[in-house]
Amino acid sequence: MKIWIRNGYVISMDEKKEIITQEDIVIENDIILFIGKNYKGSYDKIIDAKDRYVLPGLINCHTHLGMSIFKGTNDNYPLDKWLKEYIWPIEDQLTDEDMYDTTLLSIIEMIKTGTTCFNDMYYNWKGSMKAFSETGIRGVYGRCLIGEKEEWDKREKDFEELYQSNKNDLIKLSIGIHSLYTTNIDSLIKGEHLATKYHLPIHIHLSENKEEVKTIKNRYQMEPIQVLEKYGLLKHKMVIAHGTFLSKKEINLIKGKDISICTNPISNLNLGCGISDISSYRKEGINVCLGTDGVGSGNTLNLFYHMSMVDNLQKGIYQDPTIMSSYEVLKMATINGAKALGLENFIGSLEVGKNADIIILDIDEIDKCTTTNPIIQIVHNGWNNYVDTTIVNGKIVMEKKELKMNIDIHKLQNKMKEIQERLK
Amino acid sequence: MKIWIRNGYVISMDEKKEIITQEDIVIENDIILFIGKNYKGSYDKIIDAKDRYVLPGLINCHTHLGMSIFKGTNDNYPLDKWLKEYIWPIEDQLTDEDMYDTTLLSIIEMIKTGTTCFNDMYYNWKGSMKAFSETGIRGVYGRCLIGEKEEWDKREKDFEELYQSNKNDLIKLSIGIHSLYTTNIDSLIKGEHLATKYHLPIHIHLSENKEEVKTIKNRYQMEPIQVLEKYGLLKHKMVIAHGTFLSKKEINLIKGKDISICTNPISNLNLGCGISDISSYRKEGINVCLGTDGVGSGNTLNLFYHMSMVDNLQKGIYQDPTIMSSYEVLKMATINGAKALGLENFIGSLEVGKNADIIILDIDEIDKCTTTNPIIQIVHNGWNNYVDTTIVNGKIVMEKKELKMNIDIHKLQNKMKEIQERLK
Predict the structure, then answer these.
(1) Average pLDDT of the residues of chain B
(2) What ipTM describes this predicted complex?
(3) What is the reported pTM?
(4) Going by CATH, does the domain composed of A58-340 fall within 3.20.20.140?
(5) CATH architecture, domain B2-56+347-403
(6) Residues 262-301 (B) with a CB less than 8 A from some CB of A
């Protein structure tokens, strides 16, 4: 199958090129075969991209896809109380089938809003893995490892079952260690051993709010990153979710290592965690990528919404509009995300030979009246339903805003209502 | 004309009622005639609102509608530099006809996103007033008064021409004093006299960023609000746009007076002004309402987007998710806005006898799967194209997402391009 995306404005995120070029892109099966002017070869399908913008699919580097059912539930809860009193009791009762439905809903939301790759950490992987396979989405999945002793061991065993059974080429696995505050040192060491044994990256929540940092300091007389260092975790490839309050000392410890920080600006605000000073991390050369967190706190999986805010927030807290730029933010949601997940040779930019994870944006008719700088417009207004076409690994999963998969939204609405009724 | 809005979930913002009720609303001409169960009377048109949410139209208390042409133009400019080097030189060249087109575009964006009333401050009122009349939108308009001596006097004369000519019942006027930093004391006194002479409220930019506060303190050895007090401005009804950095002393000076603060959270971030501590103002009983500012800095006139952020930002800076709630934010964008504009007896809540400014929301099919708390969902995800129907003063201006006005968007796109080409 050869798809010719004709004559779009290509924002390739390829640093060797101009930021915006007007070119053709040709996909053969799952691979980008050609990018250039005036394609003359054969094709099976043509997509006219005139006056539209062609970008790499967005990458959401921290989320919990099974949490779609918790969207719009948190208004006034602090993180700790929200998790303990609201989320965890309900999560415990979600079945594999529930997880299939909630994950499916999240995948639809991602595809509609231009995200083609995720970094998920959650439970009940059977339901999630089924949804991943059926929809053909790309991602990294970490079965959440949490707790101590038997509790941890049970989950570790469950992870191993997942490892043995995963045959989906588009889904890589990670070692999803929930956090320092929900495990002990024994568990942490076990997590590190797992990462070594399976040669997998680590995905961990860390320093999400000041209370958590205080807890860890009190417990270990060390800063959170120092704990990771002491037990050998920093030698692994890692995505640190949040890292909202890392000290200079901590940044120095991860500097130069294969460790990325995934900031989740909306969730951090909504849960009263605060605003992460990612500009200082970026100055030190740390790879900073972008996540939505679960929709219970992050409101939406629409990464455009999070892009606009991460830019605005840095400008706001520094009281300096030059501290960030829209293009830097777009990098966070594309190529930086790919690097964080070890997928930079495959996705994150549009280059010949890479996998075809591509989105085509059609700027809203109102915004089109005034688009002078497409990068600013896309980063700050792209949440406004710009995504027209989504392609994952060469497969068109949405075209002209129509999902190309056999999903009955009304059936899904009823199923979600049934879950909510059952668990409330 | 009698319109029956049948069986919707009504979020009336009427403090005497439950937050959400399932009721009928009947409009007769421009007035809400009936709110209650099982309407049995006559009607000319019926709108089925089953499973949809019926709210008062949103009120944008600080904007510059003629600035639509500047959407997506500011990425890295500080406020001062942006205004002086980019905005003002172009603004100066906009003709009345240009202003008609740019204002029209803003009105379309407002109607599509559920805003039925605005508080505008801008130049070239002839074009704007024409767009207001043609579309039937409601609002308050302040011809921007700026500068010193002859410059001010020329604008004051222009305001008086506007005052004499305004026959539009839906458009009230204000005395739009640009700011302390762009006028001198003589001008300020003239502005105060105008407010007295015409018995009109004042609309002023104040304390938008720290640099401005410093400038005023250096110039007058007083805080900005003290300057307003000294020259008699605080005895007038007033909307202070921004008020990002008001001291306790300043808050005490406006406390108990007919003065509202209109916060513009996105613009304040985007221009590197900072985050306003509106929670402390609210604690003192100040009426705080919500604005988008012009789209050059505020990105969008979609007030839902600004609502979600003002809530999140307060939670974030206080590191306390209980400092705000979605319902309080909804008040800011409805009834608080009406109070700020002196229109609380006419709009801002759905009550019998008030004017029929009404929006009907249809929650997105994805979000509908998981709506457990409609208020949170609407405030935090309503930006996602929820607005289905918009009614201004009893007139349906959008129904089922279709504009009910004779506007050719493609023609408007071409006109905006022509303006951009001419002025660049």
Answers:
(1) 96
(2) 0.95
(3) 0.96
(4) yes
(5) Roll (2.30)
(6) 266, 268-275, 295, 299-300
